[in-house]
From TrEMBL:
The keyword Metal-binding applies. Residues 104-114 have a biased composition (Polar residues). Keywords: Metal-binding, Zinc, Zinc-finger. Residues 55-89 form the SWIM-type domain. This is SWIM zinc finger domain protein. Residues 91-102 have a biased composition (Basic and acidic residues). It comes from Halobacterium hubeiense. One of its GO terms (molecular function) is zinc ion binding. Residues 1-20, 91-114 are annotated as: Disordered. It comes from the Archaea.
Amino acid sequence: MSSQQLSAVPETVPQGIARADLEPRTKRALEEAMAVSLLEKGGCYEVQSASGNWYEVDVAEETCTCPDWEYRTPEGGCKHLRRVDVELKLGRVPRPDGRLPDQARTSLNQQRSP
Protein backbone atom coordinates (compact mmCIF):
# COMPACT_ATOMS: atom_id res chain seq x y z
CA MET A 1 0.00 0.00 0.00
CA SER A 2 1.07 3.53 -0.67
CA SER A 3 2.24 5.87 2.04
CA GLN A 4 0.92 8.91 0.18
CA GLN A 5 -0.14 11.80 2.36
CA LEU A 6 -3.83 12.54 2.79
CA SER A 7 -4.89 15.73 1.09
CA ALA A 8 -8.06 17.68 0.55
CA VAL A 9 -9.05 18.87 -2.89
CA PRO A 10 -8.52 22.60 -3.48
CA GLU A 11 -11.56 24.82 -3.30
CA THR A 12 -12.45 24.13 -6.93
CA VAL A 13 -16.11 23.81 -7.80
CA PRO A 14 -17.38 24.50 -11.33
CA GLN A 15 -18.55 28.08 -11.78
CA GLY A 16 -22.19 28.69 -10.99
CA ILE A 17 -22.44 25.82 -8.52
CA ALA A 18 -22.43 26.54 -4.80
CA ARG A 19 -20.83 23.90 -2.57
CA ALA A 20 -24.05 23.75 -0.57
CA ASP A 21 -25.88 22.66 -3.75
CA LEU A 22 -23.62 19.68 -4.46
CA GLU A 23 -24.84 16.13 -4.03
CA PRO A 24 -23.64 14.94 -0.58
CA ARG A 25 -21.21 12.31 -1.92
CA THR A 26 -19.68 14.83 -4.32
CA LYS A 27 -19.32 17.35 -1.50
CA ARG A 28 -17.58 14.75 0.70
CA ALA A 29 -15.35 13.73 -2.23
CA LEU A 30 -14.20 17.34 -2.54
CA GLU A 31 -13.86 18.17 1.14
CA GLU A 32 -12.60 15.06 2.92
CA ALA A 33 -8.91 14.32 3.17
CA MET A 34 -8.00 11.32 1.01
CA ALA A 35 -4.88 9.89 -0.59
CA VAL A 36 -5.23 8.65 -4.16
CA SER A 37 -2.61 6.69 -6.07
CA LEU A 38 -2.51 4.50 -9.15
CA LEU A 39 -2.49 0.86 -8.08
CA GLU A 40 -2.06 -0.67 -11.52
CA LYS A 41 -2.35 0.33 -15.16
CA GLY A 42 -5.81 -0.06 -16.59
CA GLY A 43 -7.48 2.26 -14.14
CA CYS A 44 -7.16 0.68 -10.69
CA TYR A 45 -6.49 3.22 -7.95
CA GLU A 46 -6.19 2.92 -4.21
CA VAL A 47 -7.84 5.52 -2.02
CA GLN A 48 -7.15 6.02 1.65
CA SER A 49 -10.05 7.72 3.40
CA ALA A 50 -9.73 10.06 6.35
CA SER A 51 -10.88 7.08 8.44
CA GLY A 52 -7.66 5.28 7.51
CA ASN A 53 -9.44 2.62 5.48
CA TRP A 54 -8.08 1.70 2.03
CA TYR A 55 -10.36 1.05 -0.93
CA GLU A 56 -9.70 -0.05 -4.49
CA VAL A 57 -11.37 2.01 -7.19
CA ASP A 58 -11.55 0.76 -10.78
CA VAL A 59 -12.38 3.69 -13.06
CA ALA A 60 -12.79 1.47 -16.13
CA GLU A 61 -15.35 -0.75 -14.40
CA GLU A 62 -16.67 2.12 -12.24
CA THR A 63 -16.47 0.10 -9.04
CA CYS A 64 -15.13 0.56 -5.51
CA THR A 65 -14.56 -1.86 -2.66
CA CYS A 66 -16.13 0.47 -0.04
CA PRO A 67 -19.35 -0.49 1.78
CA ASP A 68 -21.29 2.41 0.21
CA TRP A 69 -20.60 1.07 -3.28
CA GLU A 70 -21.03 -2.60 -2.37
CA TYR A 71 -24.38 -2.15 -0.58
CA ARG A 72 -25.95 0.87 -2.27
CA THR A 73 -24.21 1.31 -5.67
CA PRO A 74 -25.10 5.02 -5.73
CA GLU A 75 -25.76 6.69 -9.05
CA GLY A 76 -22.71 8.75 -9.92
CA GLY A 77 -20.49 6.57 -7.72
CA CYS A 78 -19.34 6.66 -4.14
CA LYS A 79 -17.16 9.49 -2.79
CA HIS A 80 -14.02 7.48 -3.59
CA LEU A 81 -14.91 7.07 -7.28
CA ARG A 82 -15.79 10.75 -7.44
CA ARG A 83 -12.52 11.74 -5.74
CA VAL A 84 -10.44 9.72 -8.21
CA ASP A 85 -12.32 11.44 -11.04
CA VAL A 86 -11.55 14.87 -9.56
CA GLU A 87 -7.87 14.00 -9.00
CA LEU A 88 -7.59 12.80 -12.61
CA LYS A 89 -9.22 15.96 -13.96
CA LEU A 90 -6.89 18.13 -11.85
CA GLY A 91 -3.88 16.15 -13.11
CA ARG A 92 -2.80 15.18 -9.60
CA VAL A 93 -2.57 11.41 -10.22
CA PRO A 94 -1.36 9.33 -13.18
CA ARG A 95 -3.86 8.56 -15.90
CA PRO A 96 -5.27 5.01 -16.12
CA ASP A 97 -2.64 4.18 -18.78
CA GLY A 98 0.06 4.95 -16.18
CA ARG A 99 1.32 8.15 -17.81
CA LEU A 100 1.66 11.26 -15.73
CA PRO A 101 -0.51 14.19 -16.84
CA ASP A 102 2.49 16.11 -18.28
CA GLN A 103 3.69 13.02 -20.15
CA ALA A 104 0.27 12.59 -21.72
CA ARG A 105 0.23 16.21 -22.94
CA THR A 106 3.78 15.94 -24.31
CA SER A 107 2.93 12.71 -26.12
CA LEU A 108 -0.23 14.25 -27.58
CA ASN A 109 1.66 17.34 -28.76
CA GLN A 110 4.33 15.15 -30.38
CA GLN A 111 1.64 13.22 -32.25
CA ARG A 112 0.16 16.47 -33.59
CA SER A 113 3.52 17.86 -34.77
CA PRO A 114 4.26 17.30 -38.49
